[in-house]
Design brief:
Length: 286
């Protein structure tokens, strides 16, 4: 189901990174260096819509954003704690604080690579450098999630990692902007890249058709549509369909989890927002 008009190009999706970057900061998850003027402006522009939705018992963008971010963080924490993963590639990281946060918390125990389109990777590197937040364990590189080969491909980046250590790939806030063939292509590339390592873990958020319909969905797509000059896609109707597609893409196992609603910095718990999103956990190897 395509809720708006067309599949957005990668550059149409980039503005949303500024919005989410500000949300992470606003809720105490990020560093001021990762706030942009665009993000602050978009956040304040969306406030009346979020407030109106909340007043009528509907979901808010922040509700599902916080739920998905915390869920991905905890699953990654767990994989690192049990020693399965010590290398992370966060694709389409945008202005997410995760690379900075995990590197400062885990130090030498992990190597973290943030990968985004060249213009965003440049901007992120400059922002980290200007605030002295760089670390030898944290790189920001240019990558196109749609590239099969060449200098911007995941295949090429994978060759720079330690082949003897487990790897996690993360995408957050990316999949539902692309149509089904593009997502299946990404999943095939991610599974193939992870298979080169003893353990591979893929974590992502995903919105399903069966959980995103009716009034909630209209509010949600209206809010997202303001930021993306194209459509959002529900590629799979049910959990079972999405899990099957992940296995067919090359993962050995796949599960979609339900994230826990989170308390926002203003003390609000948005259960409706959290119920709009699922968390993909797909594995290769050990
Ligand atoms: C919605 S933002 C999500 C940012 C971040 N993951 C977060 O949750 O805050 C989307 C990001 O996807 C990046 N992006 C869009 N198309 C991409 C592609 N083909 N390959 C890699 N990154 C891409 C954009 O540059 C932008 O930083």
């Amino acid at each position: 189901m395509n809720l708006l008009r067309r599949t957005p190009a990668s550059e149409d999706i980039s503005p949303t990174a500024h919005y989410t970057g500000y949300v992470w900061y606003r809720h105490g998850l990020s560093h001021p260096a990762l706030v942009t003027p665009e993000g602050r402006l978009m956040y304040h522009a969306a406030r009346p819509m979020n407030a109106a939705s909340r007043r009528f018992g509907g979901p808010t963008l922040e509700g599902f954003l916080l739920a998905r971010h915390h869920a991905i963080d905890s699953l990654l924490d767990e994989a690192i704690a049990v020693g399965k993963v010590s290398q992370v590639i966060e694709i389409a990281a945008g202005l997410s604080p995760r690379g900075w946060d995990f590197t400062r918390r885990y130090g030498d125990r992990i190597a973290y690579v943030e990968a985004d389109l060249p213009h965003m990777a440049r901007r992120k590197r400059a922002r980290l450098a200007s605030a002295g937040l760089q670390s030898p364990r944290h790189r920001v590189v240019a990558l196109d999630a749609l590239a099969d080969d060449g200098p911007l491909s995941l295949a090429e980046l994978g060759r720079t990692l330690d082949p003897g250590a487990g790897v996690a790939i993360i995408t957050e806030g990316l999949l539902n902007y692309f149509d089904r063939p593009a997502v299946l292509g990404m999943w095939r590339r991610f599974a193939a890249a992870l298979k080169r390592f003893p353990v591979g873990l893929y974590l992502s958020d995903l919105h399903l058709g069966s959980e995103n319909h009716g009034a909630s969905m209209r509010v949600f797509s209206e809010m997202l549509g303001r930021f993306v000059r194209g459509g959002i896609h529900m590629h799979f109707h049910t959990v079972a369909e999405a899990e099957e597609a992940l296995r067919r893409s090359g993962f050995d196992s796949a599960r979609l989890l339900t994230p826990q609603p989170q308390v926002s910095s203003t003390g609000v718990i948005d259960r409706r927002g959290a119920a709009l999103v699922r968390i993909v956990t797909a594995r290769t190897g050990g």
